[in-house]
User: Fold this.
Amino acid sequence: MLNDLKREAYEANMALQKHGLINLTFGNASAIDRAKGIFAIKPSGVPYEELSPGDMVLVDLHGKKVEGSLNPSSDTPTHRHLYRAFKKIGGVVHTHSACATAFAQAGRPIPIFGTTHADFFNGDVPVTRKLTSIEIEDSYEWSTGGVIVERFLADELDPLDFPGVLVNRHGPFSWGTTAAKAVESAVAMELVARMALMTLELAPKLKPIEPELLERHFDRKHGATATYGQKK
Assistant:
């Protein structure tokens, strides 16, 4: 069973590279087994082309390494914080994809201008506040998870309605019910960030999408009476 978990995390990491969201060794993906309280995550600093499923490191929700000869990603505490706070998610992804990271570095949410964005996010992609100097110096990666959770609690955002966030001065984190869905969220976030930048160049004063159009598109894919796709 845990080998399946490692495989899921490995395939998610490989998908990040396939979709062009990864440069060098930046970024990571993880997958969790909720019943066991264990997640598998990419090892720190290992080039993607050298990875194998067996290299994935198993960590529990208390931060203890359960299995693996390599050190887990330096972002492991952030993943752990998100898994503990967002009970419905099954996978977490972090990248430094260029357009989403540009918005994060600027400390700006990704504005929702059209239906492509509305198919994935129920509004602007949120951005966190900056970490304080104390948070940076003390438990930096755990505090990164903390500002994400704080942002969602402050506006009562549902993590499944907003499957990603921009960490101020840092970059995007995304998630989903599975690791594959977390990758999909990361791909979508980079896409809508690039489209927003292009839209702002063409129409700097454009207003956000109309609420009824946002609701129509988001609900047809994610609402209780969703009509998109095939019924199982």
User: Anything to note?
Assistant: The longest strand covers residues 28-33.
